[in-house]
Each structure stands twice: as structure tokens, then as C-alpha cells.
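thread: overnight batch results

M.L. [08:02]
morning all. the overnight job finished for the chain we discussed friday. pasting input first so we're all looking at the same thing
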Amino acid sequence: MKIKTSVLLLLAAFSLLYSLTAKNIYLTTNTLLNGTSVRPGYNFKFVWNGIGQGNDGSIYMTISDRSEEQGGGDVCVTEYNPYTNVMRSLGTVTEAYKRANNCIDTEYCNKVHTWLSTAADGKVWFGSQDGGRGSHLLYIDPLTKTVVDYSKGQKYLFRKSTPMVPYLNLPLLSPSDTSGVAIQNCSFTNMNINPFAPNRMWTNSYTNNYFHCWDVLNDTARSFPGGNADMRVFLVDKKGDLFASLDGMVLKRSFSGSAKIIARNVSPNQPSTFVYTRSFDSAFTSNRGTGNIELYDFTKDTVYPIADLPDGYQDNKEYRAMTISKDGKSLYILGNSGIVYQLNIQTRQYQNVGNISSYLADSYAFSNGINDTNGNWYICTWGGGRSYWVQVNLGKDAVTPAVEQAASTTQQRSLSVFPNPFRTYTTLQLSLPGGITGGRVDFTIFDHQGRLIHRISSAVNNRRVILTKIDLNSFPAGVYSIMAKCNGAAWTSKILSVR
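M.L. [08:03]
and the structure it wrote out:
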């Protein structure tokens, strides 16, 4: 009986260990290693945190073509659609500068060091790390899929050694010294947004030890002391307040200027990756160089230690990736040896569920909860002069896709409109319930007398969030009704056009 029991346990452990599968997805038109590059002639070498996921499920990677020691260079932005298996280039960062007529001869983008953060309106924000005047704020437009240089028209500039000041109050400097950059002679280190607070985008930067908070909806900004260039991760709650770990303490800071220490004696190592829970009321972090896993509870202003995994820094590798299961009960964490751990959040027990080291490059691997609806987790990895994705299938314990998380944040409504009120253009966002994977969505717009004035359709194609831009410039100001229909279901909302 003991022998049979031992054999059954061994078989169960073997089955669990090999239930996890993986494959590599390369930056080629067919996603295979021998395929045609999505940008022929470009060297996809280094990624420095610059990954993220949009509300439509697409995943993005920003790749430098040379090391920072070499100087110069550019950063290419790539998009991968996990549902169509299409990989493509969206162009480079300096090409975005030139489209905005916001690039000088001595300027270049060496890398993107910030995570790519998605706001409730679908824009995917990131900051550049440049040589020349300073660094820019950019975003990926969710409808046109173009990279946009936001810094061209902004009213505020963060200076290297002083807090942010309005452009109009700057000392006399030539336009080439100030206009068109977000931060002067310095580089962004990190960025984060909580979709419940889309107008609170927090950043930090090298050398000036300041946090910078942008209100991108109202085009205002503030800066606060206490930043740290080594911060790979800081978090933002649903009110737009910042939570940052500093030398074993956690600081909470608001846009109004208030600040307080909410926790002491937490892990002295800086968090290196994170994942928000489905409600965005809390988040988990994993610490660089150690196995410390911690929970940031925004509702209670508290940080809890969850686990200490046995797989810290080793062999000059830095593997840091995390995601959360669909039921919210488990975390999956990548260790530096390539082992994937499954951590039960409630019991705080963990187990080894597989090893993906053979799929990873030899230097870096990271992810902050990038997933699709088919149970796949996406990890960016680079080393040996190339960068690519690793797709890890977690089987029946499908992870929560970022598209579902983002869809649940915009006012908790299935049909949302932004901006609203609007003058000329606005965007309709429909969050589809589970089970709808095909067909089309028909949007119809009616005036105040119930007359149909506009109709537009969009194919579902396995998307959970449908975004559609509309132009009502030819119609008078007033209140309009919107109806969205898909597979027999219907949603309604109202919009206000102003002039």
C-alpha cells in the first residue's frame, strides 16, 4: 500500500510539473526564429522594462538597438496580437519625435526604462531616456496604433535639479533648451497609472530624486522630493495616490502634497515587478535579488509579507516576472533559475510547477501580469544580442488577462465614452462579457428626437474590448443616445456634444 501510494504521489507530482508548457515568440512576421524581421535591418537587442498591454489585449515591447554605453541609437516599438498571432513594428521613438516636429539634430533615444502603463481611455503611456535636451512622454494611440509624442505641446517642464516649473516661468533659455521635452537633461526611470485614476500618472527620474505626477486630463503637473533612481516599481491606488518602497519603508504620497510612512521594516530590496489584483484595490510585488513577495493593501494603507521564495539572484541573471490566477487565489512567479512557482495567497504555501529556463535568454526576463484569455502568460526576455517573448501556458488555471482588468475599470460600465462631454471626436468603448468571441458590434447614434444620425460596425475577432472613434463635428451640439448591439445583447449610453 505504501509503495502504491508513493507511486501515485510521484505520478501526481510529475503531472503537475509538466502541465506547464512554453514556446518562444520572435519579432518576425511569422513569430518564428527564421522568419522575416518586422523591421528589417534593425537590431532588436535590449529591453529595459518597456513592456505593457493595451485594453484590446495587444502586448507591446520597446527594444533598443544598442547598449547605453555606446550612445546614440533608437528604440523600436513592437505590437503582438495574441489572438491573431500577428507581430508588427509601430515605428521608432525618434520617428514619433519627427512626426511631431519635435526632434533636434543632436537628439536620440537610447532606451525606454519605464513600464508601459495603460490608462482608462486606452492610451499606453511611457517615458523615453534620451540624449540631448532631455526626455519625452509618449503614448500609443489605441485606435490608430501610432506612437505619439505628447511632450511637444505640454505646458510643464521638470528640471534636472529643481521641482517642476511652468514653461512660462522659466529663466531665459533658448527654445531648443526647453520646448518639447518632459524632463530637462535627465531621463525617466519608471511610470505607473491606476486605470481608476487616469489623470494621475506618476513618474520618477535619474539624478534629481523627485517624483513627478502628471494630470494628463487637465494638463497640470507637480513634483515632490523623495524619488529614487533605483525604483523599478512603485504603485498607484484608485484615488491616484503613490505607494513607494524606500529603504525598507513604504511612503504614501498624494497629488495634494501630503505624505506619510505607512509601513516600516518591509523588504530592504526594491520591488522589481508587480501585478494588480482584479479590483485594483491592492497589488503584489516581487523583490529584486530575493524571493520576498509582498501585498500592498491600498484600502488599509498596509503592506503585508506573503512569502520568501528560495530562488534569489544567481549566475548574473535577473529573472523577474509575476502574474495572478483568474480566481485571484494564486500567484505565479518566475525565479532566477527559470523555475515557475505557484503561490497560494491564502495559505502562503508555494510549489514548483515547472522550469522554463531553456526558453529564456541568458540575461533578463520580466513581466508584470501580461496575459491573454487562453491561459497564456507572456514574459519578455533578452540576452545574447536579441529580444523576444516567451509564451507560458498555465493550463486550466488561466490567468486574468489585462484586457479584462482594464475593461472593468472605466466607471464599471459595459459601454463607456471618453471624453464626455466632447467637441468634435469621442471614443466608444464596449466591454464584452465572457462567451462572446465572434460576430460584430453595431454602434448606432440617435439625436434628441430619436432620429438615427450615425452607424458604425466593428468585428469582434476574439476581442473583449471594442474601441471605436466617432466624429460628430457636422452635427449640432446637444445630447445624443448611443446603442451598441452584439449577438442579441444591447447596451446604451448618452453623450454630450459641446461647441
